[in-house]
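REVIEWER CHECKLIST
Item 1: Sequence provided? yes
Item 2: Single chain? yes
Item 3: Sequence as submitted:
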Amino acid sequence: MRSRAAAAALTIFICGCGGSDPAPRPTASPGAPAERAAPTPEQEIATLLTNRAAALEAGDARAYAATAVAAQRRRDRVHGRRAARLRLRDVELTPRDVDADGNRATASVVTSYSFAGVRGEFQVRRRFTLRKRREWRIARVQSGRRGAPPWELADFVEHRTRHFAVLAPADLDVGDLPAALEAGYATMRDLLARGRLQRRYLVVVAADAPQARALTTEIEGVETLAAISDATVVQSGPEASVDRVVALRLLVVWQSYGLLGPEERAKVVTHELTHAVLAGSTSGRMPSWLGEGVALYVSGDRRPVPAGADLAALSRPDAIARLAGTAQADAYATSSAAAFAIADRFGRRALLRLYDVFNEPSLRGRAGPRLTNRAVKRVLGISLGDVLA
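Item 4: Structure as written out by the authors:
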């Protein structure tokens, strides 16, 4: 640890000719360059990461790689060239928990980034290992298994439409996906309140399930999915309402999506876009049947009521996510039947009003069948058990 000593003012008297009074010279002020304490390892590492972030945002692959050494520098050259094609914005590398010992250091680093013209900030936290000779350089970035930025997984290119920025592997033909996305946007503009829609959404196309898993952090079961709405939100209050949507994107798993016919593709895209559009108004108390039901309704996916349908059993937020196979398929069918029944009987606005009521502080209680029953009675004037009657 270095301590900063207070500078003592030193006055030098010079005898002038003719016996004049001695004149003092100006004194050195504390904090002059020669007296400043040397930067700490933490400060030097923070500066290095700031330069690295600036190079990544500017698309300067050479400067980006220059912040690293050895094998990491070689990887950074590739990653920097890929990132330069993606129009990154607001890139920051923030060090946490820096542990420096001599010429070695480790740090937990939060990488934040956005894409031009798309709302939202994406983050990933990883462990950096650093070495110092004359200056600090990055020796290794822990890759991890989840949450990787696109440019570290493959060479992605952007396909931009009026309402979407689509990132897809350069060697993958996205076919009619942009058109399907715009058609889904038009459907939601007709069926949902216009104010819910953002001007542009981010869509990331993963070539296969392993790539989709590497892009996400907590989503499970990507092996069986064709598309996923991936949102990071900040919730607050007993009603678990959304204060802020931090990051939002639609992830398309081409390995599964590519096997679908045009009609099924349109339903899948519109379904997941509905989840994305409503992310900012989806309470953490939302019953799973209603959340999925609205997405099924907007995508036009009407399904018959299965035998033994039970909305109460699907009234916890994670109820459907806990199911698999036939049980999960029946749960989706129940959700679809309930949403269409409400819209047919009470109108589309009532269905969306029911969706929103879970954000209201006056609707008190924990997520589950009882709360859902009170919400249904408040908005529709019937009990939960009568929805599918």
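Item 5: Key structural point noted by reviewer: Residues 1-28 have pLDDT under 50 and may be disordered.
Item 6: Recommendation: ____
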